Amino acid sequence: MSVQSVNIVRCGLSALAFALVMHVSEPCIAAKKTRVAGKKKAVTNKKINAAGTAERTPLKLQPNNQAELLQAQGKYAEAGQLFRQELTLREQNLGNDHPDAAASMNNLALVLQAQGKYAEAEPLYRRALAIREQKLGKEHPDTATSMNNLAELLRVQGKYGDAEPLYRRAFEIREQKLGKDHPDVATSLNNLAVVLDAQEKYDDAEPLYRRALEIDEKAYGKDHLDVAADLNNLAELLRVQYRYAEAEPLYRRALVIRVQKLGREHPDVATSLNNLGALLFAQGKYDKAEPLYRRALAIHEQKLGKEHPDVATSLNNLGLVLYTQGKYAEAEPLYRRALTIRKQKLGNEHPNVASSLNNLAKLLFAQGKYAEAEPLYRGAVAIGEQKLGKDHPDTIRYRNNLKALLDKEAFENRPLY
Asked: What pTM did the predictor assign?
């Protein structure tokens, strides 16, 4: 049985503070990749948000291929229907506690997670983990996979303390069962580094990223796509620490590998273009970042369709660089289009919708359109509190933005004596 890969996406430009409070660019395709044992896939997005390939088993009852295609196209609701059918068939034919039923639970949970339906996804991940522990054993590599997937769901909700021990246990199983230099161990090293990185434990995360890179280079060679993902991850860590000179050659090397292996029009090449654009943006090189963002957007529209969630991410990123240059009239339609796509494809209460609401509100605030901005900020706060929790970093940012707007309104409306 092969297993899915799960993409982790860094929330954009966390090192860049603006005049009021941090302007949030939602999971920009500048991304980390959490990979799990088995079939691997280069980073696409998703951000946000986003799941990778689903688990496959020999059972011929399932509509897996069609569901995976719909999932890759961002048609999560349609994919979820097929995965639910698959789960029902497997439970009927194999039993509720069969390992293949656990694989179907995982597939359905991935799609629910991509839609921000975390409360629905979690019991499926936990049930899949329980089945694998019972049927395969607590030390089985597939059990480690389930631990990883549950950890990832917890991580995206900002529950780092709950996610970290699961990532560590998955790493221990893989290292014990597969050996210290196995590529799947590199995957777990990367995953653990991601959650440490998210907690700003950079000194702890960096050696894990570097060891993952070393393992993959040894296993696959220096121009493999998994090596490109490792280079990206390490570069992202360096970027948020303002180590731009160290990060840039890693980003560029990852881009070269992807162009050589995938061609210039592949969505993963768009990812690398976006990553390099984020680095240039962070250094204030807006004129150099903008064409990279535009190229990434063009590739995503061409290859994924104009309504794909990854297109919304590219629209957001381009809108951000325009906003930062004061090009509000150009940025606003991009932000609005990104918001529309997200609502249509992900649902009105998805965390990425909250991010788009926040970004559009920030733009309106900058133009003094407080009455238009306020309900958008409130919407972002409501989604953040409901889906991510009141203490999640994004929710805190949204509340701070709303508070800044209310303080500004109060100041401007104060009585003059």
From this structure: 0.77
